[in-house]
Amino acid sequence: MSSSPAPRSHVNPFTLSFTEVARTVRDTGLLRRSYHFYGWFGGALVLAFAGVVTGFVLLGDSWFQLLIAAALGVVFTQVAFLGHEASHRTVFSSGPANDRLGRVLSALVVGISHQWWMTKHSRHHGNPNKRGSDPDIEPDTITFVEEDAAKTRGVVRWINQRQGWLFFPLLTLEGLNLHYRSVASLVTQGTRKQRWTELPMIALHFGLYLVPVFLFLPLGLAFAFIGVQMAVFGVYMGASFAPNHKGMMIVPADMKMDFFSKQVLTSRNIRGGWAMSILMGGLNYQIEHHLFPNMARPHLAKAREIVREYCEAHDVPYTETSLIESYGIVIEYLNRVGLAARDPFDCPERMAMGR
Questions:
Q1: CA-CA 20 to 30 A from 206: which of 27, 121, 225, 342?
Q2: DSSP 187-234
Q3: In contact, 152 and 141? CB cutoff 8 Å
Q4: Interhelix angle 114-126/95-103, nearest 10 degrees
Q5: What's the whole-model pTM score?
Q6: What are the pLDDT digits (tens) for 268-291?
Q7: So what's the pLDDT on residue 17?
Q8: Cα-flanking dihedrals φ and ψ of residue 270, to 5°?
């Protein structure tokens, strides 16, 4: 004799929604690994690196090397996307295998600490856009909360007043910032094992990268090559991660939300299908990625259909825009936050002219 199901009246409806969504996703087979895709993608990255190296060697002392530098910035970003997926354990079924892959891709190939990224990104996934919990909205050169913008002083305050318009120019420095913060975090906060594992890999990365650049290119061209590569890497990384949460709901520090609502209401998807998924490393399906962080990239599109259906059924707002539209939202949001950094006695016309 089968027992009757437990009453559902006391269950949070959104928690119930996620339970149903998760069951549907699991039964549909969307949590299985996708070895064919990652094998193909990994092979494409190897060929891309080979093409960059070949172009570098053939061009020699030529300012066309800056095109190779830009291409290298794109390839590094694509490798970082794959490292991000490995950190979420989407590539292999074995956790340690994913960790090893993520560490090699992040530290050795890209030059960024895998452990630093894991710690920072795990905190973000646990509480996206929540004040005091999400490191991605902590105040820095750019501020994401009005109260933080109002406290800034000096050069940072000047930047905050114009931060929406300065956002993309500032991203040209984000590559350097990522390298610096990851190494500094390893040195000051990493365990002995983490430092001995990742710092040599990062050092080897820069050795394999910088030695040929300075050895085969004139000094001025070498610095220009590095500048272009770092700028493209920073802009590409920032332009791929920024549309996902900036301008979405900011969760107060003392507010409690169920998992389903917390992940959906703070995230934004980007339209564009497979092309956008390759361009953004699967980050265009941000809502599904946050609900199922260990889901392989090829399955996110199908999961989107399931999640959208449940959101419509339970009146949960599901945000999806074009890439250009998302950038407009981000810029407008940052400018609005930056208003808090402005002196209330400033002349509006003078501020509009940037004086």
A1: 121
A2: HHH--HHHHHHHHHHHHHHHHHHHHHHHHHS-HHHHHHHHHHHHHHHH
A3: no
A4: 120
A5: 0.89
A6: 999 999 999 999 999 999 999 999
A7: 63
A8: -120, 125
